[in-house]
Amino acid sequence: MAIFTDPIDEYADFGPGDAEWLHLLVGDWQLIADLAFADLALWLPTPDGSYVALAHVRPSTTHTVFHSDFVGERIRADLLPLADAARRSQVIERSSESGWTTEMAMRVEAVPMVRNGRTLAVLTSHMDLSSSRMPSRLELTYRQCAYDLLHMGTLGLWPDFASPTGSRRGAPRVGDGLIRLDADGIVQYASPNGVSAFRRLGDVESLEGRSLAEITTALLKDRRMVDESLPLVVTGRMPWRTEIESRGVTLSLRAIPLRNEHERFGALVLCRDVSELRRREMELVSKDATIREIHHRVKNNLQTVAALLRMQSRRMVSEEAKQGLEQAMRRVATIAMVHETLSQGLAQNVDFDELIGRQFRLSAEVASESQAVTTQRSGEFGELPSEFATPLALVINELVTNAVEHGLKGRKGTVWLTARRDPAGSGKEWLRVTVEDDGVGLPDSPGGDGLGLQIVRTLVTSELGGSIEWRTREGGGTCVNIELNLDPQRLR
Fold first, then answer.
1. pLDDT digits over 328-364, tens only?
2. How many Å apart are CA 157 and CA 25, to the nearest integer?
3. Which of 424, 394, 272 is nearest to 330 (CA)?
């Protein structure tokens, strides 16, 4: 289906809700195309007496008539008189058979879409009759349903603003199953797929001639879980959707009341077996909950490990061993904080600014012994893939700890953390991270053989696929620059 909305703003003189009504029509007219076995086109009148095509939809129940799209084009000369007649009369107009050719026998109908007494647009239905045969009862019923809905369009009764507009997976379509009810909710016709859908719920011999509400009530085993909208849907009184579940089978139902100028004379009920869809959705929900629970438990376990390391460090006599355990404890705590963040959401990306905001200050406070260390952060990391979160948090933790313990050892100072994301063209994006301090500056061999710096180099080059550089900061101190190439595919 294609739609072209600019002419509405350019040509139309619509009142409140008129444009929304046509959008609602285009959003739901696949139903008409499938019932009518026809292509549908929506034409908007123009000031020069012509029409421009707003939208076009093809049926899924038969082959299409128009293989090329004509949305945005002017109406053909042979269709103009028919569209004008429908617009003036505000009733459905049908083309004469004299226009048929040996190559194409086509029935064209022009349907005025009338709201508040004004013809807003004209809908044309194009059905190929060249390969027609004796229509079956299903085809005759489908076409009658299409006519009834189009006739409601000429009265402004369809589409209905109360109709569901959500795109929930499993919304029933014509081919999934159609049931036609009379005004009392008695089944006049049920398509084979409709009958099969209800038979999956239980032992239903036939639907025709019986009340759909009574059939549905008899099939429901657990009536405590019944949707409140179910009675209005199975009687066809309201244009709503609902679902029923029994014996492990879930049916999605949608009702479309049929009305004329005076009363409701029947309804269409579309049904679809969505058992497999709902089962997969439940599996996804269960998997998401499981993943969050795993992150939560990993966080708890890592916090336990950090506590054990802290207890062990207190028993150490050697100062070097005590410092080693404390460093290991801080690294474990950093990883635990990342898992805590991951356990709170279902997205594959992590708001790294929220995560590192706490971690940055904590790393500096824990590493400082008695000196006063100030931390300043600028720029934004943005959302990063979850697989980036742990190694990048560890890298920043190690660099901040190193800046406080070595660069600012025994003195006051400041540690700066800056992040900047820059587009690099060709769909690529760079993340540039800088950690600076105003301490004693670089040693003779920057990026030496310490364990912390070895961890940093390994994580940046291997896990993050980036580069790292140590240099002297302007004004004194050390500056560490990290550049990471963010893959757009991992950020979606």
1. 777 777 777 776 766 666 566 778 888 787 778 777 7
2. 11
3. 394
8 A C-beta contact, residue 170 and residue 277: yes
Closest CA relative to residue 422, chosen from 377, 481, 356: 481
Q: Specify the residue for token string 């100028």.
A: 261
- Dump pLDDT digits (tens) for 455-464: 788 888 888 8
- Mean pLDDT of the chain, nearest integer: 82
The amino acid that residue 316 corresponds to is M
Record the tokens describing residue 182, joined without a space: 């009379």
> Is the per-residue pLDDT at 4 higher than 60?
no
Closest CA to 12 of 61, 40, 52: 52
CA distance 68 to 72: 12
| CA 313 – CA 319 distance, rounded (Å) | 9
32: Cβ contacts below 8 Å, ≥ 6 apart: 40, 125, 146, 149, 150
Distance CA 34, CA 28 (A): 11
Considering only residues 109 and 10, tell me which one the structure prediction assigns the higher pLDDT.
109
**Nearest partner of 51 among 126, 117, 123, 1, judged by Cα:** 123
Q: Compute and round to an integer the Cα radius of gyration of the chain.
A: 34
DSSP conformational letter for 473: P
State the pTM of this model: 0.61
Structure confidence at residue 80 as a pLDDT band (50, 70, 90): very high
Q: Would you call the peptide bond into 159 cis, given omega within 30 degrees of 0 as the criterion?
A: yes
176 SS3 class: helix
Pairing of strands 478-486, 428-437: antiparallel
Q: How far apart are CA 66 and CA 115, in angstroms?
A: 28
